[in-house]
């Protein structure tokens, strides 16, 4: 009698042991795969950081050779004359500032339209698709486009064409950032403002933009960092100028073009200036990225 009663009890016990063994094997396999993937991630991170450190060290070692006050106070002079990069630095600052001033309002308004006025519409989807394509388009294509619409019809290269090319690069970055930041605002806040009787445009400008201001500013700073080092679109638009020039109707100097030209020259002092210019622009872009992250992480008031 006891044998017949114990048989059903033994069967579940054996099944439980088998399940425990299977679970143990699966656990070991999962831990092994987790450790393997983690090892691959660590190796990839070390390789990427190693390349980055190597590039930065090379840039610093080669760039500090010609770094000095004359880089910022002297214009480009003939080889052997100990010239500087003042004209190229000032030209880059002017073109980046004007390009950002043109592209930021357009990107802000387009991003606001996508986030607030076009939800679920075919027009909004088409605009977003075009913006995404423009965001990933090679900058040289943008330079060729501006070359066809501004350089060829007006008969020459100019700083204005370079500013327009940089503005086109700025626009999709600001569009994406503005749309993402506005979509993070809860709908209850929008409903509360409209429920008080405010029109939608006032809700967007007084509440939406203010709540997303830090994120939008971060996008603008990232756009500035992106266009500050662009060379290809400027080669087809502003062309570059080794002399002092602040007339945007003529070929205009810029730091990326100066680096490109000097690096390919046979003169040692110009090659040293190219390394120094690359160091200057790298430090500037790094500072902008740090500022963007600091603004993004700043506590909300």
From TrEMBL:
It is a multi-pass membrane protein. The chain crosses the membrane at residues 36-61, 88-114, 126-151, 157-175, 207-228, 270-296. It comes from the Bacteria. SUPFAM superfamilies: MetI-like. InterPro entries: MetI-like (IPR000515), MetI-like_sf (IPR035906), Phosphate_PstA (IPR005672), Phosphate_transprt_permease (IPR051408). Its main location: membrane. CDD domains: TM_PBP2. Residues 89-292 form the ABC transmembrane type-1 domain. It is found in: Cell inner membrane; Cell membrane. Keywords: Cell membrane, Membrane, Phosphate transport, Transmembrane, Transmembrane helix, Transport. Pfam families: BPD_transp_1. Belongs to the binding-protein-dependent transport system permease family. CysTW subfamily. This is Phosphate transport system permease protein PstA. The lineage of its organism: Bacteria, Pseudomonadati, Pseudomonadota, Alphaproteobacteria, Acetobacterales.
């Amino acid at each position: 009698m006891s044998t017949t009663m114990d048989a059903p009890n033994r069967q579940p016990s054996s099944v439980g042991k088998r399940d425990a063994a299977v679970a143990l094997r699966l656990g070991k396999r999962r831990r092994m795969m987790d450790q393997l993937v983690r090892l691959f991630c660590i190796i990839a991170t070390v390789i990427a950081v190693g390349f980055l450190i190597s590039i930065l060290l090379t840039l610093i070692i080669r760039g500090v050779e010609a770094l000095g006050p004359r880089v910022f106070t002297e214009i480009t002079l003939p080889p052997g004359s100990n010239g500087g990069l003042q004209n190229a630095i000032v030209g880059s600052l002017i073109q980046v500032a004007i390009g950002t001033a043109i592209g930021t309002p357009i990107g802000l308004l387009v991003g606001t339209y996508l986030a607030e006025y076009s939800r679920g519409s075919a027009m909004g989807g088409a605009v977003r698709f075009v913006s995404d394509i423009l965001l990933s388009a090679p900058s040289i294509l943008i330079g060729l486009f501006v070359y066809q619409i501004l350089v060829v019809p007006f008969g020459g290269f100019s700083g204005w064409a370079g500013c327009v090319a940089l503005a086109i690069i700025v626009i999709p970055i600001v569009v994406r950032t503005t749309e993402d930041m506005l979509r993070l605002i809860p709908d209850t806040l929008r409903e509360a403002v409209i429920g008080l009787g405010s029109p939608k445009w006032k809700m967007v400008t007084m509440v939406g933009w203010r709540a997303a201001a830090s994120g939008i500013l971060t996008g603008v700073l990232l756009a500035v960092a992106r266009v500050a080092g662009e060379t290809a679109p400027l080669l087809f638009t502003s062309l570059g100028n080794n002399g002092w020039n602040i007339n945007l109707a003529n070929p205009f100097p810029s730091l990326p073009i100066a680096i490109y030209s000097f690096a390919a020259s046979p003169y040692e002092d110009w090659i040293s200036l190219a390394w120094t210019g690359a160091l200057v622009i790298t430090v500037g872009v790094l500072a902008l990225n740090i500022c963007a992250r600091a603004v993004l992480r700043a506590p909300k008031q």
